[in-house]
Amino acid sequence: MKDRDLEGRLERLATRGSPRGADTVLEAAQARAAGPPATVTTLRRLTPAIAVAAAVSLIGGVAIARSRDNGPQIASHPLSTVPGATTTTGPPEVSIPTALIAQSRLLPFSNCGALTSYMKTKALQTVSAYGLPGAGGGMYVAAGGVRSSAGAAESKDSATAAAAPTAAPASSSLATTDNGFSMTNVQEAGIDEPDIVKTNGNYIYATNNGDLFIVSATQPKIVGSLKFGNVNDLFLVGDRVIVFSNGGGGYAMDDRAVASSKVAGPNAYNPQARITVVDVSNPASPKEVSHVDIDGQYISARLVDGVARVVLSSVPSRVGFVYPVDGTPAATTAAFEKNKQTIQATTAADWLPHMTVTSNGKTSTDRTAVACDDAYRPPQFSGFSMLSVLTIDPKNPAAAKSTSVAADGQIVYGSATRLYIATTQWGQVQPMAGGASQIMAPTNPKTLIHDFDISDPGQARYRVSGSVRGTVLNQFSMSEHDGNLRVATTDGDESFVTVLADQSKILGQIGQVGGLGKGERIYAVRFIGPLGYVVTFRQVDPLYVVDLHDPTKPRVVGELKILGYSAYLHPVSDTLLIGVGQDATEEGRRAGTQVSLFDVSNPAAPKLLQKHALGQNTNSQAEYDHHAFLYWAPKQLAVIPLQEYGQQGPGFSGAIGMHVVPTEIREVGRVAAPAQYYGISRSLVIGGQLFTISQGGIKASTLDTFAERAFVAFPQQQPQPYDGGGGVSPGSPGQTEPSPPSADGGAAR
Amino acid sequence: MRGDSELFEELYPGLRRFAAATAPREVDPDDLVQEAVARTLRQHSLTELDDAGAYLRRAIANLASNHRRGFARWRVAIGRVGRTEEGRMAEYDSDLADLLRVPPEGRAVLYLVDIEGRPYAEAATLLGISEEAARARAARARRRLRLDLEGEQS
To answer: For labeling, which of A65, A585, A680, B137 is most exposed (least CB within 10 Å)?
Structure first.
């Protein structure tokens, strides 16, 4: 007996969707066969090309010329019909223009030859007598340019212990019955963000002057330390600390290449980032487990389920460009020709970031962090930078794996399963006088957003990309909800909230609302569930409430205008929102830090419950770094750093605590920084105590009155013959403030 | 002598149907055909192959199962964060949705046997597996569809 029912269903399944036709499919397949492989990259099995590190690379924006000349490059092999139509089960039925797909889809390189030939072609179109813009030569004037180095190369002697902890032991224990402690203030619950201080309730792991310090929270004293010299920030995962450092690498000069009296160099700065895993199971004796050195700048990271995803941006700094010794046409021409020859001679390894892994004192051989066929590029030229997502499990750091895309990336947003990296599209390359070239900021800037799947604990995988009109402000400009990505952008004189959906081939736009803050730009964004709050500002602060319940029809449902603006929005309950920002005069002049309390119980009519102005000439680090903001729900307590610069010189410097209840914001107390110029950068609650962290040290105060209970000073930085630049050097000559309290100023001052 | 395009034009309707019957619900059948053809073309022209239709069917079936494993991981991750996929399934009637939940390997055998009318031995050869494996896959697929008809059509 035949199963008619099953046959019928198979027949219906076999005829689902609308066939594209033999010609279209074959043509696309032929184009694909001639070019890079694998279309459904989400599903690609990434073959580790090297034992320790397999990587996927994203190469930023190299296709502008071809797109201009021949139309969208990908148009010859359409990736998909309209998603959401009958052929796929993509979410909503929306029409996505093929051109949009073509503009945002990252293209994989099939092999090293394809990568090299592509990079060479684009580089030859861009190169000048000074090399490539943004990659060891030339000028880069686009928005979202290459990050500057964090500082000079530092000692790599990270295994050496820092100066012996000199802080005097505290005279008393801070033990309490309250075991609660606060975590880093993050955008999404459960997605940890790296910060300069972390705690597990027993110890505080803090970076100071670039080194790692472990401070007991119960017997306030430094119990252990590890010298790095250049720590950016860190994660705490069980008994391991992951330390992120920039500032490795250095200048590579090779005089042998100076072929004539007309050119000099090559002279390339090759910055490296270092990711170190430290075993802190014995806090008194933290020990390095292993470290990864990788070309580029560390941008940010996220920690989900104990696995770190590290975003790095590198430029092809291993290509050694020369430059003219003087401004004569002969020298310019000589340098230009030499640089073209240099590009012609490059191999794939010159364009990809390199890495080494050091474990148990043994360093692996230098290798590319990414296999060529795991490298991607967007169809629109976005520069020669490479954006890499390195996956590190601190339990097995030697197996770090990476995925890369040729793009600049600056802003990272992570959900439980995705990492979204936003990059600004490059403008045109324009020649400059004197033989250099520059990248112009695009006139209609677009933000490209690359979506990496991080559900596999072993490796991030590039998934899909999309583009949005305008530029994003920061990580809060992006938010995932019900599988859709909401993005707030400013383009010219108005702002937008756009909803993108993963339509299997593209992050396609399914809804958008514009017209927010005409003539203004976005100062703060917060998406909370199906609602979005957007603050724009020029003179007054419109707080817009955007209803995203229907992601295909986002709409502005409420608006509140007050003087000043909020730069950080923090939800304290379903109905209350705290804003930290600046008061402003009616002319739009900033008038000092203010903390606002909004009632958003009715999205159509947000209300300002109270505005707490903290005085003229004040600002708070929380206005531009949400990690500086602390909200301790059990006590309804908000703590922010505050710095005052009065007419008569420096005023208050420290942290200020506020009791936030639906009816008011009431100041609870203030903690002064150990010295005005240090400033307090972070606040933590541990065991019923408030810990405030500054460059001078860590101070413990009572949570109720903010009265000081103990102080642990960080070792003072010794005067250096050469300060690599970058950081403030506390206690350096010229400071008129008193020295920070010495270590023996210890507890219970 | 005919070229690839004439041959492909002839093969396409059958391949497209096979891909539609086999592809994971998230994958466009034409993309699957396209990918299979592209991979094949890197090695051979279609006319070089003894039986291009069989070769491409096997490529499609393999790609479909590769993709399905990727999507399975994705669904597990989505499930972990408490999201459902109801929205994505809404386009299909429940009986087609049930069928789509059967792994591509199983659907490939069912299609070749029930629709293309091939004996199990031929279907197995075509998919590069043993006849026993083909029967087992079909049986599992039918069980999954709560049909007690395994082995009826051989």
So the answer is: A585
